[in-house]
Inverse folding.
C-alpha cells in the first residue's frame, strides 16, 4: 500500500488512527499497541501476503537474540558470540533475498559458466528492517537497551510509517514514545502537525516528483534501450531525475513523519535540504541522515573511523561508501555509485585539509561548492538510476556529448547568426528524443527555486519540533519566512491543497517511491 | 470565529470537515457526470462494446494507421486503436482470437512500432480495462474515464452545454480529418512534418533482439497454433515521409525484419508503403477517407482473397 494511494489516504490511515485512539480512550493501552502492530502487518501484507511470514520470523528471531545478548551482557559471558550469530543471521537473510542473483551473475561472468538465476523477488523493506534490527542487537550488546518487551519490540520494527523505507530508527528513540497514554497529552497538536507534514510530503510526491519522473523515466528508458540520446536530452533528463529522487525521498520522509505524528510518535530527522549542501560531506549529513548515522556508528567506527591515520581513514570512507552503494541495490552500478561518492568524500576531506591550512573561506567558494556538489551528486545518479552498466555508460557518453549535440529544429532561429559555428562544433538541429522543450526548462528552473530558495518542511514546521534530533539543524531567519501556525486560515489552505492532490491521485496512477525497491 | 487564532484543535476539525465533505461531494458529482453524460459516448467504451460484440472472419489490429486506413464491413472488422504499441496489438489479437470465432488476423507491421517512444508507452491500464469483461461498478474508478476527470470538470464548469454535445463534436473533428488531404499544405510544411515524424519513428538499436520482437514471433506462432491465418501489413506512407526514412537504415531493416518473420512463419506479408498518391493522405503517414477506401479494397483483394 503506497502512502500516496487513495486506499491509504481515505481508508487505511483514517481508520487506523480512529481505532487506535478509541482504544486508548477506553484505557486499552496494550490493545492499542497490538492493534497498531496488526495494522502495520496488514499494511505490509497488502503488497504480498506471503512475505508477512518473513518479517514475523525476522522479528521473533531477533527478539530472542536480543534477549540472550542482554542476559549474557549482564553475566559478562558470550555476548560477542551471540551478537555475531545475530548479525550473521540478519546478513544471511538479506544476502539470500537481495544478493543471490548478483552472486550468480558474478560467478557466471568470472568463470564463464551458465548457472540459472533464481529470480528471487526482493521482499519489501527487508534492507530497512534488517539494518534496524542489527542496530538493536549491537546496542543491546553494549548495554544501551533497557526495555525488552516483545510487543513493544514488534511495534518498534513493524510500525508502518517507517517500515518500508525508513527512517532507520534506534530502539532508544522509539521505546520511550510507545507509552500510549503519554500521547494523549498533545492529541490535537499531534493531529494538526501530522496532517500538515503529510500533506506537504504528498505535494512533493504527487506534483514535483511525479512531474520530474515523467521526463526522467523517458530519458533513462531510451538510454537503456541503446538509443544514443543527444547531450541536451541527457542533461535535462538527468536534472529531472536528480529532482525526482530528491522530492520522492523528501516527500516519502515527510509522509512517514506526518503519519507517525498522527499517532503521537516523532521519527528522527532524515532529510534536510541536501542540495543546499556546499560540500559532499555536508550532503551526506542531510541526505538519508539515519542511514548515514547507521553506517557511521555500525560500520565506519568499528573499522577504526578516523583514529588510525589518514590512509586508513580514507580507506574506511571508501569501504563504507562501497557497502552503502551495495545496500541500495544488488548491481555493480550501485557499487560504482557508492565508489563515486567515496571518491568525492576523499577529495572533499583532502580539500578541507588544504582549505584549513590556507585559511580559505568566503561566499564565492561556498556557492561554487554548492554547484559543484549538486553536479557531482547528479552525475553519480546516472549509475544509481541506470538499469545496467552498459546503459549507464551510454548515458554518460550522451552527457559528455559523445552521442551528438542535437537541438530542436526551431532553435535554429535563436542561433541564426552562429549556425555555421555551431555546425562546426558538431551541433545539429533535428528531432530531440526525450527533451520536453521550454516547459521542461521552466519546471527545472522552478525546481532550483524550490531547493535553494524555499524553506524545507522542518523549517516551515519548526515551532512544533517535527522530528527527533531536529534541534541539531540550523534554522536561519531567512529560511523560516514561511512558518506554519495552526489556525482556521491555514486549515483551509492545507485543506484545498489536500483536496487538489487527492483529485489528482484519483485521476492518475500513484507512482511508487524510489526507495521502496531497496 | 477569528481566522488567525492559533488552535490545533480548531485547525484539525476545520481541515477534516472541509476535506471530507469536499472529497465526498466531488466523488458523488463526478460519478453522476460520468453516468449521465460521458460513459455511453466515450470512445473507449464504444471500442470495448465493438471488441466484445461485433464479429467478422477477418479482423485487423493496429494503431492509428489502421484506424484511419481501413473501413469496417460485414467481413472485415477494424479493431485498430490510436496509440497502441506492438504489445497491445498482439495481446488484443491473441485475446480476441481466443474468445471469438475468427479465421484471419491482420497485424500491423510498421517500423515505427519499434520506435523508442512507442515501445515505452505503458498501456497496462488500457489493456486491463479492455480485457477484463466486467467493468468496475463505480465509473470514477474506470481508468479510461478518470484519466480525463479534470478535463470533464473544466468543460462542465466553463461551458456545461458542451458536455451534452460532446459526441457530435468528436464526430465532426474526425470527419474533418478524414476528408483533409496533405497536398493542401505548403510543400515546406509537409517536408518539415515528415522529417520530424520520421526522426521520432526511428526504430531503436538492435530492435530485432528486443523483447518486443520476441513477443511478435511468439504471438504469431500462438495465433497459427490456434488455426488462425495471419497476415503482416505495412501501411502506406506519403512521398515526403518515404524520402525522409531513406536517411535512416533502421527503417529498411525493419521492413526486412517483417519480411523475414513472414517467411519464417509461412504467412503473408503485404507492404503498401509506396502504393498511394499524396492526395490519399491526411498527413505524412495517415490515410484520409479516399485512401482508406482504396486500402480496404486492396487488402481484401491482395491479402484476404482466400477467405472472401
Amino acid at each position: 500500500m503506497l502512502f500516496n494511494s487513495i486506499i491509504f489516504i481515505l481508508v487505511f490511515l483514517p481508520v487506523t488512527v480512529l481505532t487506535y485512539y478509541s482504544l486508548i480512550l477506553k484505557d486499552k493501552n496494550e490493545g492499542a499497541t497490538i492493534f497498531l502492530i496488526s495494522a502495520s502487518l496488514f499494511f505490509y501484507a497488502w503488497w504480498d501476503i506471503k512475505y508477512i511470514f518473513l518479517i514475523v520470523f525476522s522479528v521473533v528471531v531477533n527478539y530472542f537474540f536480543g534477549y540472550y545478548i542482554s542476559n549474557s551482557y549482564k553475566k559478562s559471558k558470550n555476548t560477542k558470540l551471540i551478537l555475531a550469530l545475530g548479525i550473521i543471521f540478519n546478513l544471511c537473510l538479506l544476502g539470500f533475498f537481495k544478493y543471490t542473483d548478483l552472486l550468480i551473475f558474478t560467478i557466471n561472468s568470472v568463470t564463464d559458466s551458465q548457472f540459472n538465476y533464481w529470480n528471487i523477488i526482493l521482499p519489501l523493506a527487508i534492507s530497512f528492517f534488517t539494518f534496524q534490527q542489527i542496530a538493536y542487537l549491537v546496542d543491546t550488546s553494549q548495554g544501551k537497551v533497557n526495555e525488552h518487551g516483545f510487543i513493544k519490540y514488534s511495534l518498534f520494527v513493524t510500525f508502518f510509517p517507517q517500515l518500508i523505507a525508513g527512517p532507520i530508527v534506534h530502539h532508544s528513540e522509539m521505546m520511550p514514545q510507545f507509552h500510549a497514554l503519554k500521547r494523549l497529552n498533545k492529541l490535537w497538536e499531534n493531529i494538526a502537525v501530522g496532517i500538515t507534514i503529510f500533506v506537504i510530503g504528498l505535494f512533493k510526491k504527487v506534483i514535483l516528483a511525479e512531474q520530474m519522473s515523467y521526463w526522467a523515466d523517458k530519458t533513462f528508458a531510451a538510454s537503456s534501450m541503446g538509443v544514443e540520446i543527444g547531450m541536451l536530452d541527457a542533461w535535462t533528463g538527468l536534472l529531472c531525475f536528480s529532482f525526482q529522487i530528491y522530492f520522492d525521498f523528501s516527500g516519502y520522509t515527510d509522509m512517514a513523519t506526518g503519519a507517525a505524528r498522527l499517532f503521537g510518535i516523532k521519527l528522527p530527522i532524515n532529510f534536510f535540504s541536501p542540495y543546499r549542501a556546499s560540500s559532499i560531506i555536508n550532503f551526506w549529513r542531510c541526505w538519508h541522515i539515519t542511514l548515514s548515522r547507521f553506517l557511521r556508528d555500525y560500520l565506519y567506527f568499528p573499522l577504526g573511523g578516523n583514529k588510525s591515520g589518514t590512509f586508513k581513514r580514507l580507506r574506511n570512507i571508501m569501504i563504507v561508501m562501497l557497502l552503502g552503494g551495495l545496500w541500495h541495490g544488488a548491481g555493480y552500478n550501485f557499487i560504482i555509485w557508492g565508489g563515486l561518492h567515496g571518491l568525492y568524500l576523499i577529495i572533499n576531506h583532502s580539500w578541507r585539509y588544504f582549505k584549513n591550512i590556507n585559511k580559505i573561506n568566503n561566499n564565492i567558494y561556498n556557492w561554487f561548492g554548492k554547484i559543484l556538489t549538486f553536479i557531482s551528486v547528479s552525475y553519480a545518479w546516472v549509475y544509481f538510476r541506470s538499469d545496467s552498466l552498459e546503459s549507464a555508460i551510454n548515458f554518460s557518453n550522451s552527457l559528455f556529448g559523445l552521442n551528438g549535440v542535437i537541438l530542436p529544429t526551431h532553435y535554429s532561429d535563436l542561433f541564426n547568426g552562429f549556425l555555421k559555428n555551431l555546425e562546426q562544433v558538431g551541433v545539429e538541429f533535428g528531432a530531440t528524443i526525450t527533451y520536453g522543450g521550454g516547459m521542461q526548462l521552466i519546471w527545472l528552473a522552478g525546481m532550483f527555486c524550490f531547493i535553494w530558495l524555499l524553506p524545507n518542511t522542518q523549517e516551515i514546521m519548526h515551532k512544533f519540533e517535527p522530528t527527533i534530533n531536529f534541534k541539531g539543524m540550523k534554522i536561519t531567519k531567512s529560511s523560516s519566512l514561511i512558518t506554519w501556525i495552526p489556525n482556521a486560515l491555514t486549515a483551509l489552505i492545507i485543506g484545498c491543497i489536500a483536496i487538489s492532490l487527492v483529485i489528482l491521485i484519483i485521476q492518475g496512477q500513484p507512482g511508487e517511491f524510489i526507495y521502496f525497491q531497496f | 470565529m477569528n481566522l488567525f487564532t492559533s488552535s490545533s484543535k480548531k485547525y484539525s476539525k476545520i481541515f477534516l470537515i472541509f476535506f471530507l465533505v469536499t472529497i465526498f461531494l466531488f466523488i458523488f458529482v463526478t460519478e453522476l457526470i460520468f453516468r449521465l453524460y460521458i460513459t455511453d459516448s466515450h470512445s473507449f467504451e464504444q471500442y470495448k462494446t465493438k471488441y466484445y460484440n461485433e464479429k467478422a472472419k477477418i479482423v485487423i489490429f493496429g494503431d492509428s494507421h489502421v484506424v484511419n486506413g481501413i473501413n469496417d464491413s460485414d467481413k472485415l472488422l477494424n479493431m485498430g486503436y490510436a496509440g497502441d504499441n506492438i504489445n497491445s496489438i498482439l495481446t488484443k489479437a491473441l485475446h480476441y482470437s481466443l474468445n471469438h470465432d475468427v479465421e484471419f488476423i491482420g497485424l500491423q507491421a510498421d517500423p515505427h512500432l519499434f520506435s523508442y517512444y512507442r515501445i515505452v508507452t505503458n498501456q497496462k491500464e488500457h489493456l486491463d480495462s479492455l480485457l477484463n469483461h466486467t467493468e468496475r461498478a463505480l465509473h470514477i474508478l474506470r481508468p479510461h474515464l478518470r484519466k480525463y476527470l479534470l478535463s470533464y470538470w473544466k468543460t462542465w464548469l466553463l461551458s456545461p452545454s458542451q458536455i451534452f454535445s460532446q459526441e457530435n463534436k468528436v464526430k465532426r473533428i474526425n470527419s474533418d480529418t478524414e476528408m483533409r488531404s496533405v497536398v493542401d499544405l505548403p510543400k515546406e510544411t509537409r517536408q518539415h512534418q515528415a522529417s520530424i515524424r520520421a526522426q521520432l519513428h526511428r526504430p531503436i538499436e538492435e530492435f530485432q533482439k528486443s523483447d518486443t520482437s520476441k513477443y511478435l514471433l511468439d504471438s504469431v506462432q500462438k495465433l497459427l497454433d490456434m488455426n488462425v491465418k495471419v497476415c503482416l501489413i505495412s501501411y502506406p506512407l506519403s512521398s515526403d515521409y518515404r524520402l525522409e526514412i531513406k536517411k535512416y537504415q533502421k527503417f529498411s531493416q525493419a521492413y526486412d525484419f517483417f519480411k523475414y518473420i513472414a517467411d519464417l512463419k509461412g504467412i503473408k506479408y503485404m507492404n503498401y508503403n509506396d502504393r498511394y498518391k499524396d492526395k490519399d493522405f491526411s498527413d505524412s503517414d495517415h490515410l484520409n477517407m479516399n485512401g482508406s477506401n482504396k486500402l480496404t479494397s486492396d487488402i481484401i483483394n491482395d491479402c484476404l482473397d482466400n477467405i472472401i
Q: What stands out?
A: The interface with chain B takes residues 10, 188-189, 191-193, 195, 217-218, 221-222, 225-228, 409, 430-431, 433, 485-492, 494-495, 498-499, 502-504, 506-509 of chain A (CB under 8 Å). Residues 187-224 of chain A form the longest helix (38 residues). Chain A has a mean pLDDT of 88.
